[in-house]
Design goal:
The protein has 437 residues and is of the alpha+beta class. It contains 13 helices and 22 strands. Strands 3-2-1-4-6-5 form a six-stranded mixed beta sheet, with helices on both faces. The chain has a five-stranded antiparallel beta sheet with strand order 7-8-11-10-9.
Length: 437
């Protein structure tokens, strides 16, 4: 018997964005939330993405719109008009989650809920094991992921797809089936069709075992991350690795350092990089060659020069700058940061500062290794690198993105992306208003 309240503690007046594809899993999730909506006075917003690769997807979007009108649900939708050359599933996922996050901010939501279930977790863990990853990658995905100002929640992780389809049948929930889910050309589909049934024949509750496995790895990964960060502080020299110090670290920590640094160049849990690439870099480090390099996916190069190792994108000419701000700055990409009288805009393109909190003059510069910012709404600081990754900013843009600091080096604003604790609300006292355009 499925009871969503058994797996998540709802609070009165929660606002929830629900990622809904119109498939059996997400429609079951919506129906469960509708059943407890009045009990908790929930505000529910349906977020539907039309991936625009099947003609049926437009009919599904229309059905979701009517469904929401009939059930007094807020309906938000988008259609992906164009795809680049990236892996289709990864690119679609990034677009989808950027859309979801925009709705979280629009409605000031407490949670983003998705319908990932136990079978999804098994598939993800197995795919990561076969591809090769680190502990964090092998853990798959988590039930609850704290984000800045909200949480991503997967309340159905304890159930199987079969259980959710049975729920739909019993509760007369209509759903659509994506025909592409039967195509063997997609890796995940092959696991779903051939591997998962075998595991369930061995143990019908195998999804619970994988969930425990995932949670154990996540706990271990959090502990290891702390040790990795200590090692990073010892080994990093600017943007390069001091190899004399690096080789003194435990071999496991060495791999974790490389995975972490490569996350600068790859999105979605290093989906393009596996342990074979890490071994290539380690072989380079331990080779007798004083000057050499190895090529990694997407034109990333690990370059060894005597006792230093640098990871960089080969085809990029990194543009760095440091400009003292005096009311107006024209950036190399033709964007502008200027001081304005005031504005009603509260987006990340505006920053309000009180000069008593900072040390003037302000400086606009590119990022540096180890940059951290005290993030507004977050209890503590966050690495600028991680902020860029969270916002899915591509590497070629990260290296030239403006960072606004005061004369003592405190980061006060990442224009267009994130505000610091130094940003003031409209009702607060401030004497500097900056605009990014």
């Amino acid at each position: 018997m499925i009871n969503i309240e058994d797996n998540f503690e709802f609070k009165v007046n929660d606002t929830i964005i629900i990622g809904c594809s119109s498939g059996p899993d997400s429609m079951a999730l919506v129906d469960m939330l509708l059943k407890i909506r009045e009990k908790y006075h929930l505000s529910l917003i349906i977020a539907h993405v039309n991936h625009n690769v099947r003609k049926e997807s437009f009919d599904e979007a229309l059905y979701m719109k009517d469904y929401c009108q009939n059930n007094n649900l807020v309906f938000e939708t988008m259609t992906i008009e164009d795809y680049g050359d990236d892996n289709f599933h990864n690119e679609a996922r990034n677009i989808r989650y950027n859309f979801f996050e925009s709705l979280v901010h629009k409605y000031e939501a407490d949670y983003l809920m998705t319908a990932h279930h136990g079978d999804d977790l098994i598939e993800t863990v197995l795919m990561r094991i076969v591809r090769g990853s680190n502990l964090n990658g092998y853990s798959g995905f988590k039930k609850v992921v704290p984000m800045e100002g909200y949480k991503i929640v997967r309340p159905l992780i304890h159930y199987t797809k079969e259980e959710l389809e049975e729920y739909d049948k019993v509760n007369n929930v209509k759903y659509f089936v994506d025909s592409s889910n039967d195509k063997d050309k997609y890796t995940r589909n092959r696991y779903r069709k051939y591997v998962i049934p075998f595991l369930k024949d061995e143990d019908s509750n195998v999804h619970h075992k994988f969930l425990k496995f995932s949670e154990e790895l996540s706990d271990a990964s959090r502990f290891i991350d702390k040790e990795r960060d200590k090692a990073l502080d010892r080994c990093l020299n600017g943007s390069s690795i001091n190899l004399e110090l690096f080789v003194k670290e435990d071999k496991f920590i060495q791999k974790e350092i490389l995975y972490y640094l490569l996350s600068e160049f790859y999105q979605d849990d290093l989906i393009l990089v596996n342990d074979k690439h890490i071994d290539l870099v380690l072989n380079l480090i331990y080779s007798n060659k004083a000057n050499s390099f190895v090529n990694l996916p997407n034109e990333v190069v690990a370059n060894k020069s005597y006792n230093m190792l640098e990871l960089k994108r080969e085809t990029l000419e990194i543009t760095s700058y440091e400009i003292e701000f005096n009311n107006y700055v024209l950036l190399p990409d033709n964007h502008v940061i200027e001081r304005v009288e005031d504005t009603s805009d509260n987006s990340n393109n505006i920053c309000r500062l009180n000069s008593q909190d900072i040390t003037l003059p302000l400086i606009v510069r590119t990022r540096k290794i180890g940059d951290r910012m005290l993030v507004k709404g977050l209890d503590g600081s966050k690495k600028v690198k991680d902020i860029f990754i969270d916002k899915k900013i591509k590497m070629d843009k990260r290296d030239a993105w403006p960072i606004v600091v005061d004369s003592k080096g405190k980061i006060v604003w990442i224009p267009g992306i994130k505000k610091s604790v130094y940003d003031k609300k409209k009702v607060d006292s401030y004497d500097i208003v900056l605009k990014y355009s």
